[in-house]
Design goal:
The chain is mainly alpha-helical and 184 residues long. It is 74% helix and 0% strand.
């Protein structure tokens, strides 16, 4: 059995990119046409918009709590694997060095790709994702009556107080999440 077939049997698993890709491609702004037309969303549309913001926030949280660390861990494993192969090259016949160099290059390239993805997603998270959510939630608060928004927040049980603090939402949302909002 050659070294190449052994190394291809047990490659380091790459974490699923589905939640991260959805996070990266998610746009809360594209859902409603209310901003363009100046119309007010009905109760069902308002609920759908806030539910979309909830889903988007969950993707952000999932990336921060699980996805990012999985990607970092996998990149480290790949770099360690490449280093192990590099150190073991002295024990193999020089004819096999070309195959070993390919394995090393592949592992390092995969690690570099994962590191670049983390940098990209971190930049999106800090720059635009939270700001989009915050702006969309503020827009929804101002385009519908406080009573309608309050009812949707209670129905969905979102945003919670923790989410309000995380996204630095308006005080109205804080009061709604604590069931202390009484619109006039």
């Amino acid at each position: 059995m050659s070294l190449t077939s052994e190394s291809k049997k047990a490659p380091t698993a790459v974490p699923s990119q589905v939640p991260v890709a959805r996070f990266s491609n998610a746009t809360v702004e594209n859902r409603g046409a209310y901003e363009d037309s100046g119309s007010v969303p009905d109760a069902e549309s308002l609920k759908a918009e806030i539910a979309l913001c909830n889903e988007h926030h969950e993707l952000v949280v999932r990336y921060v709590t699980v996805g990012r660390q999985d990607m970092v861990d996998t990149a480290i494993k790949r770099l360690l694997s490449a280093e192990t192969v590099r150190k073991s090259m002295a024990y193999f016949h020089p004819m096999e060095h070309a195959e070993l160099q390919e394995i090393i290059a592949e592992e390092e390239a995969n690690a570099s790709d994962l590191q670049q993805m983390v940098i990209t997603y971190d930049g999106q998270l800090e720059g635009e994702q939270r700001t989009r959510l915050q702006q969309r939630m503020l827009y929804l608060l101002h385009c519908a009556s406080g009573g309608e928004v309050n009812e949707v927040v209670h129905d969905l049980q979102w945003p919670t107080l923790a989410v309000c603090q995380d996204l630095q939402l308006a005080q109205d949302y804080h009061l709604m999440s604590m069931r202390r909002y009484f619109p006039q």
